[in-house]
Each structure stands twice: as C-alpha cells, then as structure tokens.
C-alpha cells in the first residue's frame, strides 16, 4: 500500500516450479502445431493467455503460492481467486503502463497482478520494471479523455490501442511531474512480485535473447468480481453488473474463473478442450 508493489520471496518452492515447467515442456511437445507460430527463434513462447486451464500443474502454481496469496487475501479482505494468466518464456519488454484500462473492476481496485518467476531474473533477461509510489499519483480525468478520443460516447469500444496509449501517456506525464523513477526488480525462481492495480510498471529489455525468462503473471480478484475494459474504464458512471458473468471451478482450495479458449499472443486462439494435457 505504500510502495505499490511487494516482493514475496520463495512464495512457491522449487519443486512446484520444476513440476510446472516440466508440464509446460510436455505441453509444447504434444501441441507443436499450436505453439510453433507463437515461438521465437529460440523456441520461447510469448504472452500465452490461460495456460493454467490446459495444464493443471500451472494451476497448482497459483494455489501453492501461499505466501503471496496471503498478501492478496489481506489486501482484498477475502479469499483470492484466479481470473486469468499470462505465460512468458521471454521478457515482455512492455512500456510502462497501468493495467486498469483492461482490468477495470466494480467495485474499483479489486484486482492485483501477481508475477511468479519460474527462472532467476536479472538485468540481462528482461526483469519487471516498477515505478514506486505511482499508484498514489493524482487521478487522471478519464471522462475528459473519453470526450477527446470518442466523439460518440455511446460507442466507446472495449478495446482501443489509441485510448490505452493516451491514458498511459497521461500517467507518464504525472509520474515525471512528481519525480518518480522506474526501477528494475531482480528476483529468484519461486519469488512473486505483487502490484497494486494502479502501479505503473513494464518490462525491461531482454538483452540475452538466448536465455529464457519463464514467468507466470496471475491476474487475481475475489470470486465474482467482474472485470471490464476500455468502455467501462473511460465511463466510470456507466451502469454495469457488479457480479461476474463467468463461472468458476474449484482447484484444491481456491476458485478459478472458467473460460473455454487459450490465446496465443493475441494472434490466434484454440479451445481449451483440444489442449488439455495429459489426455
């Protein structure tokens, strides 16, 4: 709550990390046609959405990250459930941004990012960058931005690269005006980085391209909290349901949102039922 992020050392033990990685390797061998278009020249996957729905050992990594879940439970004041995940085998190299335009909850701020390192991460293989204190910057007038970006307020789309970029530019302006500076977070396998919904963060350059930087980003909320996108984020007063439309399933002692597709780098999708492993 003070810095906007926390590092939980050894939130997941090495044995669980190894089990998850072994299962992912087996998944890649079993489904080469699915994963090959997503892989780079070193065979590293990029931004695969919801691998945990096809690979139970990845879902286990969420459930068994108990030290990190204790932090999230305390933040929410209730049990943490898993909404979606992103699996990376190389650095995201994303520019600094807030997640809130695409993870807009009702009520607000009922979302956390949890970043699990499945490899040691240093300056060479794409560490996470955070801007401490950026979650406490003055609020951005998103409704004014919406009027600037969308002449027809009834037709604000759920997804808009232009709106996302314009909002992040305003956060960057505020961050610079308040003298805030980004820093890299170097971690060891099994560590988890948790960040506040309004934390300004991104990915540093992945310099040693041959080295993997395997990680699992877990987007977590309390069960039943809906997550909206650009159309709701830029219209805070828009009436929307305050209960999620998706169902959940129980995985050990935690709840996980149930979806039917796995997305590969936002380029193509495949149904979960075709990618379940082992069969």
Automatic annotation (TrEMBL):
One of its GO terms (molecular function) is dioxygenase activity. Coiled coil: none annotated. Its cofactor is Fe(2+). SUPFAM superfamilies: Clavaminate synthase-like (SSF51197). InterPro entries: Phytyl_CoA_dOase-like. The keyword Transmembrane does not apply. This is Phytanoyl-CoA dioxygenase family protein. It comes from the Bacteria. The keyword Membrane does not apply. Keywords: Dioxygenase, Oxidoreductase.
């Amino acid at each position: 709550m003070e810095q906007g992020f926390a590092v939980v050392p050894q939130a997941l033990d090495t044995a669980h990390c190894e089990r998850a990685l072994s299962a992912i390797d087996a998944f890649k061998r079993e489904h080469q046609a699915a994963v090959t278009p997503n892989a780079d020249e070193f065979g590293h996957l990029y931004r695969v959405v919801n691998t945990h729905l096809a690979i139970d050992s990845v879902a286990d990594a969420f459930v068994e990250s108990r030290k990190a879940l204790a932090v999230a439970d305390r933040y929410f004041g209730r049990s943490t459930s898993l909404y979606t995940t992103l699996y990376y085998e190389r650095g995201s190299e994303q520019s600094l941004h807030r997640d809130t335009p695409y993870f807009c909850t009702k009520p607000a701020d009922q979302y956390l990012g949890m970043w699990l390192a499945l490899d040691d991460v240093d300056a060479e293989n794409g560490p996470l960058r955070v801007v401490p204190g950026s979650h406490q910057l003055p609020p951005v007038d998103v409704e004014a931005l919406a009027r600037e970006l969308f002449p027809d307020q009834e037709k604000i789309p759920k997804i808009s690269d232009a709106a996302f970029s314009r909002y992040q530019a305003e956060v960057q302006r505020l961050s610079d005006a308040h003298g805030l500076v980004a820093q890299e977070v170097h971690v060891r396998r099994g560590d988890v980085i948790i960040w506040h919904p309004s934390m300004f963060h991104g990915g540093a350059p992945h310099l040693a391209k041959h080295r993997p930087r395997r990680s699992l980003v877990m987007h977590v909320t309390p069960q039943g909290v809906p997550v909206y996108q650009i159309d709701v984020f830029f219209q805070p007063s828009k009436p929307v349901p305050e209960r999620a439309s998706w169902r959940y399933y129980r995985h050990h002692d935690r709840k996980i949102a149930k979806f039917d597709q796995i997305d590969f780098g936002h380029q193509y999708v495949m149904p979960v039922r075709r990618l379940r492993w082992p069969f």
